[in-house]
TrEMBL record, chain A:
Topology with respect to the bilayer: Multi-pass membrane protein
One cellular-component annotation, GO: plasma membrane
Keywords assigned by UniProt, alphabetized: Amino-acid transport, Cell membrane, Membrane, Transmembrane, Transmembrane helix, Transport
PANTHER family tied to this protein: ABC TRANSPORTER ATP-BINDING PROTEIN, BRANCHED-CHAIN AMINO ACID TRANSPORT SYSTEM PERMEASE PROTEIN LIVH
Entry's transmembrane regions: 6-26, 56-79, 91-109, 136-155, 187-207, 260-279
GO biological process, any: amino acid transport
Xref: Pfam families: BPD_transp_2
Organism of this sequence: Phreatobacter stygius
Protein name per Swiss-Prot or TrEMBL: Branched-chain amino acid ABC transporter permease
Source species taxonomy: Bacteria, Pseudomonadati, Pseudomonadota, Alphaproteobacteria, Hyphomicrobiales
Family of the protein in this entry: Belongs to the binding-protein-dependent transport system permease family. LivHM subfamily.
From TrEMBL, chain B:
Protein's UniProt name: ABC transporter ATP-binding protein
Source organism per UniProt: Phreatobacter stygius
Membrane-crossing segments per the record: none
Gene Ontology CC terms: plasma membrane
GO molecular function: ATP binding; ATP hydrolysis activity
PANTHER family: ABC TRANSPORTER ATP-BINDING PROTEIN, CONSERVED COMPONENT OF ABC TRANSPORTER FOR NATURAL AMINO ACIDS-RELATED
ABC transporter domain sequence ranges: 6-247
Record-linked PROSITE patterns: ABC_TRANSPORTER_1 (PS00211), ABC_TRANSPORTER_2 (PS50893)
Family the UniProt entry places it in: Belongs to the ABC transporter superfamily.
Any coiled-coil regions, as ranges: none
Automatic annotation (TrEMBL), chain C:
Domain ABC transporter, residue spans: 4-233
Keywords: Amino-acid transport, ATP-binding, Nucleotide-binding, Transport
The protein's name in its UniProt record: ABC transporter ATP-binding protein
Organism the protein comes from: Phreatobacter stygius
A single GO BP: L-amino acid transport
Family designation: Belongs to the ABC transporter superfamily.
Protein origin, superkingdom: Bacteria
PROSITE patterns noted in UniProt: ABC_TRANSPORTER_1, ABC_TRANSPORTER_2
Keyword ATP-binding appears in the UniProt entry: yes
SMART domains: AAA
Molecular function, one GO term: ATP binding
Automatic annotation (TrEMBL), chain E:
Biological classification of the source: Bacteria, Pseudomonadati, Pseudomonadota, Alphaproteobacteria, Hyphomicrobiales
Presence of the UniProt keyword Membrane in the record: yes
Cross-referenced InterPro entries: ABC_transp_permease, LivM-like
Transmembrane residue ranges: 7-26, 32-52, 84-105, 112-129, 162-180, 212-236, 248-273, 285-308
Principal location listed in the UniProt entry: membrane
Protein's name in the database: Branched-chain amino acid ABC transporter permease
Organism: Phreatobacter stygius
Length: 285, 249, 233, 368, 317
């Protein structure tokens, strides 16, 4: 039982990490390699806010906003001029972002480890199913569920989502329908960046805060995004659950095989449903 | 050259719950031009996709000259003599019109693409391409990047690419759509000329043209054959009139 | 009052000039048609009207007001609707979403989802299918329906009958008459001359990016041979 | 002809997983050089610092370049993988390689590299310390977690064998992927087990992650957490309060009571305004020893330096007496063991307190 | 091809030739090392661009092919006792063979999914190499002591001699690639990138062509990986990590994809920048990032675009 609860917490953590990536990927067609760097930045800014105010919750509220603002600026200044070009050039661009963000973090906070303590409210474990479950994990489950539900409603179900998807596939046509495409794009990139930072903030009490932290999560994020089907929030939720549970079970019975399990799962998915679990096929001719 | 015989047996193509083609059997006899007509969404393109290998069949068989080609991949069908054009234009963007056509010629002339000589050293390929360029009326645009062509010119290139494989059975999906009023006569002329000695299946909504060029007409409605016969027979068929042509046709 | 005016417009693709000082005007409640051979610049002119092709020189007036510098989305909100030649359906939206997206900018009027469904019953049957699974003709219906749902003041139609079955063409012609009767100005590009001759009050002929003739439909019919010689090879 | 200066190729990690370590080591080395007036053999000492990004490939690449430019020796690297990679380059080019941090036992081995010397701890001796600690502490049942990495796996095997010989039961072991970010399932298994000791054979980021997450269920309240390189002041700062009470081997500590160390700590604090980390201390200690030996040879012949260093003993090292073993070029030395405690200013808020000092005889196999 | 773009090619070739020959003039060992690296990575990038720039297949699995070559050389020489040249050929074969295996799985999908699947497969190979296959790969610590050639009684442990050897291999590789790209085979690959459905329809065996290209590209990667291991005397699974695939992609994009010499130029600029910037400033990392960003915005078709009169024809949108 406790494995399931822990598995759920792993799942929703994974979802929070990957949500921003899948959003930007699916909605703008941009593979944002800088996602991990924005995640790291979120954690660092949260650390700074905790230093100033002593409150994790203010960090949780503000850090994503700050990073979203930065995302908006990045989109306006750098991404906007290259939308019309082959998508692969965006890889070079987002790769550049990583280096610049990392350099900035190094300049501001230096190389040494930072830490964000578990918020007091959730610092004690709770007894559940014969295990001591960290209450912060329970918080992650609830918070992750709320965020995923919100995103699902906004992106997959609402008019905004429709507008965003239309913009991503044919921006010129969308524009003739009265949609301010450049604003939509900025908004999506900002939202995606903010979500990346949100992931960083939520993970901050669990992991060391250091320069490499973003780099190490990016592959996990990709796995979730791929299994779920690019850009599908529903898919990302499902994939995160699948993966979280698989990892929890993996750690229980064969910890050293966990990474292999993860990638095998990914490969099996791609071979059976190449476009991810929640994908739809168009026509070829 | 003689056209091939194309036969389909109980072809079915389904997309989820939708039966786009629901059991079509028909034998296309060699050296005849068949007009395929029917309302929008009747399954004409899908039937053509089934014949050319672009759709996955949920049932049925396709024969070319009595050879079962149901499982043959697309390129192999082309090599076996089956050519087609697409309703939604598919050309090689980023290359000039001439390069587009040269590629068609390379694909046709070489089973294994030569990798030991520069592509410029194949004069016959160039000749083939230039001949078709002339035929479809794009000679003056030979060096224009294909994606910069106007819609109508792209449609012409689309047909040109199909001709290069010199198919015995030719499937044409609305080749005349988008072709300018002024060029229509010329295009009909082209069709008349190239169909000689081939078996042709032509989808077209311009009734004047279809009635004029077809030896026989096949009518599809809701995934099934509604009628077939000579143009006059079909024109007179009341079921066809109400489903497709309208009363004043 | 003129709904839409393009005056002395130059348009370039890279270095190549596609329009040379072309002018056209559509009055309120009028149907105007633009004809010319393949590659003459018809689509280019429509795209210039909706702002997708920037004007290197010249003016665009909407309802008498200068809109030369406006972006496509501003023109769209002003009530100009565009039905493009290659349909440009949003592949990742369902059929119904492809229609409702036209309503997000908030223009209301006589056109509703229901009415579009009446015009093209096929679209109702395929409501929940992905936009990119439709047949060519169905996509054409969808593109037209989408344009109508913006409840435009000016409707730009680029070869709207391409790929449509004869019966549907008839109902489309009826629909265009009806829309026009409701006061919408229409700029129509068609290859099939039958349609513009039926519908349009005035005709413009373009060749090589230049307007070479304009006049009423009656005048066109009177001078048909001369005009056909203008636009054929 | 004598070269114009004594050129050292300093290959350290200034970015990547161990990026934080490079800076401290550099400070230690620069203090050591300043202490001797910046000279050896009468020539100025010049160090070219290069960042290997904690990866072997750049390490080799940059060292190759510096050696091509005439460097007389290599100092570094940080990560064991980088160091192992540098070894074959050093042998190839016949230049000395001085290691003061990488702990993989393979680096110094009998009949190993003639040109490589290590003045700092080996992982093996730190694992022995863990064992000694388990014994002294009277632990009965141990649950372990180790990184899925050759050196830690070998270390664990040795630990398990020796522990079982001592009558300590091993009730569980999990090998977690290197760079693992979630230990919660493993922590849960540990919490449910009846172990009284938790042996943590991971280090760096993984150690921080483990302790943060085990802290959230209060694992340390009922069981003793310890490991060979589990904590120091830097890592404890990253863990936060949950680090208190965790035991770990300590490579070097500023509180160690020796005259040389007192002087060094004072000088270091005066220069950099902080306590020297174990990386700074080990680097200072190693390079000072090496330069003294080089000075004593009065020669520019690298072979002479190598021979001399292989036979040297340093009586007044920061950690007392250190002996360079000619058989494997590993410095035999005492082993420090400590626990994380809350520190009073000017000490860091979380600071190691040395609880045990183990004698070299218990930590090193004899070699011939 | 226009006259001006041909001139551009010439200038570009001259620039690269100049760069490669610098060590002859400067006699500095440092530039020797740098240029050796450029030659090896250049070979890798040239092979990579065959499928990326021409066929439009973005492989994120090239790290595995690169690593496979490196390990093949190392193991063939140290364990099987082969000579250097046979082992180098073996490395090329290993790269091609590994590409073949990858292609069986990855070519079932196309576009972005191809990239993702190759990424996943290569990461799997990386994880296996660094954990489960320690006995062969040395685990994360890698294997030091990768040998160099012993040919014609020359001392290839001398960096200069090895550099001459690299030049020969590089030029042969470049010439072969130039021919491949200009041949009908190369044209067919471009066609596949431009419109795979149409290419299939006119009779190209698209899957087969893709597979061939992938294997050729794999052979280049394998040889380059082997040479790098030999240059460094060292190999580790780090070579198989996805970041290696990322590096070669970045270099290719920087230089200009879809051109013969662009990728080489990209490699050279990338390595030079890294080398020079890191000597000038501690903040080279961030500056490099800024340069990438500016290059993307200002140079629509990479550095090679500066030399070409117009957009490379194969560089389709
Ligand atoms: N890949 C697909 N997925 C789902 N539905 C499809 C797919 N391809 C075709 N359809 C549906 O099958 C039906 C038949 O389509 P098809 O393209 O064959 O029509 P058509 O007869 O060619 O019509 P048109 O004259 O408009 O081109 C249409 O309703 C279409 O929406
Ligand atoms: N994206 C583009 N880039 C460069 N040139 C273009 C582009 N689009 C069109 N052109 C050129 O502009 C000219 C006018 O094209 P346009 O599409 O306006 O023609 P059209 O009159 O609509 O023809 P059709 O009847 O074939 O649709 C043509 O010469 C065409 O080649
Ligand atoms: Mg059709
Ligand atoms: Mg047009």
């Amino acid at each position: 039982m406790s494995t399931i609860v822990i598995g759920l917490s792993l799942s929703f953590l994974l979802f929070l990490l990957a949500a921003g990536l899948t959003l930007i990927f699916g909605m703008l067609g941009v593979i944002n390699f800088a996602h991990g760097a924005l995640y790291m930045l979120g954690a660092y800014i949260c650390y700074q806010i905790v230093q100033w105010t002593g409150s994790f919750w203010i960090g949780l509220a503000l850090a994503p906003l700050v990073v979203a603002g930065l995302g908006a600026a990045m989109e306006r200044l750098a991404l906007k001029p290259v939308y019309d070009r082959d998508h692969v050039y965006q890889l070079l661009l987002t790769f550049g972002f990583i280096l610049v963000i990392e350099e900035a973090v190094r300049l501001v906070w230096g190389l040494d480890y930072k830490q964000v303590p578990t918020p007091d409210l959730f610092s004690q474990p709770v007894a559940l199913f014969g295990s001591q479950i960290p209450s912060y994990r329970l918080f992650i489950i609830v918070f992750g569920a709320v965020v995923s539900a919100l995103l699902f409603l906004v992106i997959d179900k609402s008019r905004y989502g429709m507008v965003i998807r239309a913009t991503s596939s044919d921006s010129d046509m969308a524009e003739t329908l009265g949609i301010n495409v450049s604003r939509v794009r900025t908004f999506v990139f900002a939202l995606g960046s903010g979500l990346a930072a949100l992931g960083g903030v939520v993970a901050a009490p669990l992991v060391p805060i250091e320069l490499g932290m973003g780099f190490s999560v990016i592959i996990d994020c990709f796995v979730v995004v791929i299994i779920g089907g690019l850009g599908s929030i529903r898919g990302a939720i499902f994939a995160a659950l699948l993966l979280g549970m698989a990892r929890a079970l993996g750690f229980t019975y064969a910890a050293e095989w966990v990474d292999l399990i993860t990638f095998s799962l990914l490969i099996v998915t791609l071979l059976t449903r190449p476009a991810g679990l929640f994908s739809r096929k168009g026509r070829a001719a | 050259m003689t056209g091939g015989a194309l036969r389909c047996e109980d072809i079915q193509v389904a997309f989820g719950g939708l039966k786009a083609v629901a059991g079509v059997s028909f034998a296309f006899e060699p050296n005849r031009l068949y007009g395929l007509i029917g309302p929008n969404g009747a399954g004409k393109t899908t039937l053509m996709n089934a014949l050319s290998g672009h759709a996955t069949l949920s049932g049925g068989k396709v024969f070319l000259d009595d050879r079962d080609i149901t499982r043959l991949p697309i390129h192999a069908r082309t090599r076996a003599g089956l050519g087609r054009s697409f309703q939604i234009t598919k050309i090689f963007a980023g290359m000039t019109v001439l390069e587009n056509l040269e590629l068609g010629a390379f694909a046709h002339r070489h089973r294994v693409q030569p990798f030991w000589l520069p592509a410029g050293r194949f004069p016959r390929v160039r000749e083939d391409a230039e001949k078709v360029l002339e035929q479809v009326g794009l000679a003056s645009l030979a060096h224009m990047p294909a994606e910069n062509l106007s819609h109508g010119d792209q449609r012409a290139l689309e047909v040109g690419l199909t001709l290069l494989s010199d198919p015995r059975v030719l499937l044409l999906d609305e080749p005349l759509a988008g072709v300018g009023h002024d060029r229509l006569e010329q295009a009909i002329g082209l069709i008349r000329r190239v169909v000689a000695g081939r078996t042709v299946l032509l989808i077209e909504h311009n009734m004047d043209v279809v009635m004029q060029v077809s030896d026989a007409i096949v009518v599809m409605v809701q995934g099934q054959l509604l009628a077939s016969g000579s143009p006059d027979q079909v024109k007179a068929n009341p079921a066809v009139r109400s489903a497709y042509l309208g009363e004043d046709a | 009052m003129t709904a839409l005016v393009l005056k002395d417009c130059d348009v370039f693709y890279g270095k190549a000039q596609a329009l040379h000082g072309a002018s056209i005007d559509v009055a309120d409640g009028e149907v105007v048609s633009l004809i010319g051979r393949n590659g003459a610049g018809k689509s280019t002119l429509l795209k210039a009207a909706i702002g997708l092709n920037p004007l290197a020189r010249g003016q665009r007036l909407v309802g008498g007001v200068d809109a030369s510098a406006m972006k496509p989305y501003e023109l769209g909100r002003l009530g100009i609707a565009f039905v493009p030649e290659n349909r440009r359906i949003f592949p990742n939206l369902t059929v119904e979403e492809n229609l409702t997206i036209a309503t997000v900018m908030g223009r209301t009027g006589p056109w509703t989802l229901k009415r579009v469904h009446q015009l093209f019953p096929r679209l109702e049957e395929r409501r929940l299918s992905g936009g990119d699974t439709l047949s060519g003709g169905e996509q054409q219906m969808l593109a037209i329906g989408r344009g109508l749902l913006t409840n435009p003041k000016v409707l730009l139609l680029d070869e709207p009958t391409e790929g449509l079955a004869p019966l549907i063409v008839e109902s489309l012609i009826e629909a265009i008459r009806m829309i026009n009767a409701e006061g919408v100005a229409i700029l129509l590009v068609e290859q099939n001359l039958r349609v513009p001759l039926k519908l349009a009050q005035r005709q413009f002929v373009i060749d090589n990016g230049r307007m070479v003739w304009s006049g009423t439909t009656g005048e066109l019919q009177a001078n048909r041979e001369r005009i056909e010689s203008l636009i054929s090879v | 002809a004598e070269p114009a200066d004594f050129h050292i190729a300093g290959i350290l990690a200034f970015s990547g997983a161990y990026g934080i370590i490079g800076k401290d080591m550099r400070q230690g080395v620069e203090l050591a050089i300043a202490d001797r007036g910046g000279k050896v053999l009468g020539k100025p000492i010049r160090v070219s610092w290069e960042d290997d990004e904690t990866k072997p490939q750049p390490a080799v690449q940059k060292a190759t370049r510096l050696l091509a430019g005439g460097a007389q020796m290599i100092f570094g690297a940080v990560g064991s993988a980088s160091t192992l990679a540098l070894q074959s380059l050093a042998d190839q080019r016949k230049v000395p390689l001085l290691v003061t941090i990488s702990a993989d036992d393979k680096i110094t081995r009998v009949n190993g590299s003639r040109y490589t010397f290590r003045t700092s701890n080996t992982l093996g001796m730190e694992i022995r310390m863990s064992l000694e600690f388990a014994k002294v502490r009277g632990l009965k049942k141990i649950y372990g977690v180790a990184a899925d990495y050759q050196a830690t796996r070998d270390g664990w095997t040795m630990f398990q064998t020796e522990a079982e010989k001592l009558g300590i039961a091993i009730v569980g072991i999990d090998f977690a992927p290197l760079g693992n970010r979630d230990f919660s399932v493993i922590v849960d298994k540990m919490a449910k087990s009846d172990a009284d000791g938790i042996a943590v054979f991971v280090t760096g980021n993984d150690a921080v992650t483990f302790l943060k997450q085990s802290g959230q269920v209060g694992l340390g309240r009922t069981k003793v957490q310890f490991g060979p390189v589990l904590q120091d002041e830097t890592l404890a700062a990253a863990v936060g309060p949950a680090a208190v009470g965790v035991y770990s081997g300590v490579r070097y500590h500023f509180s160690y009571d020796s005259p040389a160390n007192k002087t060094f700590v004072a000088a270091y604090r005066a220069k950099y305004g902080e306590f020297p980390s174990s990386f700074a201390g080990e680097a200072y200690d190693g390079i000072s020893w090496w330069l003294d030996v080089v000075e004593a040879t009065k020669s520019w012949d690298r072979e002479r330096w190598v021979d001399a260093f292989a036979a040297s003993t340093r009586e007044n090292s920061l950690e007392g007496r250190k002996t360079m073993r000619a058989c494997d070029h590993q410095a035999a030395q005492v082993g420090l063991w400590g626990v994380v405690t809350e520190g009073q200013a000017p000490l860091p808020p979380l600071t190691m307190k040395i609880t045990n000092v183990f004698e070299p005889a218990n930590l090193f196999d004899t070699c011939s | 091809m226009t006259i001006s773009s041909r001139l551009g090619q010439l200038i570009m070739a001259a620039v690269i030739a100049g760069m490669i020959l610098v060590p002859l003039i400067s006699r500095s060992e440092e530039s020797l090392n740098l240029v050796s690296l450029i030659l090896i990575w250049g070979l890798f990038a040239v092979g990579f661009d065959l499928i990326f720039g021409l066929a439009g297949m973005l492989s994120f699995g090239h790290a595995a092919l690169f690593g496979a070559g490196g390990y093949a050389l190392t193991l063939l020489m140290t364990k099987a006792g082969l000579g250097f040249m046979p082992a180098l050929a073996g490395a090329g074969l290993a790269g091609a063979a590994f590409a073949f295996v990858l292609s069986i799985l990855a070519l079932r999908v196309s576009g972005l999914f191809f990239s993702l699947l190759t990424l996943a497969l290569a990461q799997l190979a990386y994880i296996l190499a660094s954990t489960k296959l320690r006995a062969f790969t040395g685990g994360l610590d890698g294997l030091p002591g990768v040998p160099r050639p012993e040919l014609f009684g020359l001392d290839f442990y001398d960096n200069r001699t090895f550099y001459y050897f690299l030049i020969v291999v590089f030029l042969v590789g470049l010439a072969v690639m130039a021919l491949l790209r200009a041949s009908p085979f190369g044209k067919a690959l471009r066609a596949i990138q431009a419109n795979a459905v149409r290419a299939d329809q006119i009779g190209f065996n698209v899957q087969r062509l893709r597979q061939c290209a992938f294997m050729i590209s794999g052979a280049y990667a394998g040889v380059a990986g082997a040479l790098l291991a030999s240059l460094m005397f060292y190999i580790s699974p780090q070579m198989l990590h996805w970041t290696t695939s990322g590096d070669v992609l970045i270099m290719t994009l920087l230089g200009g994809k879809g051109t013969l010499l662009g990728p080489v130029l990209g490699v050279a600029v990338f390595e030079l920048l890294k080398e020079e910037l890191s000597q000038i400033t501690q903040h080279w990392y961030g500056i490099l990032g800024l340069i990438f960003i500016l290059c993307t915005i200002l140079l629509p078709s990479g550095i090679a675009g500066l030399f070409a009169g117009r957009r490379d024809k194969g560089d389709a949108r």
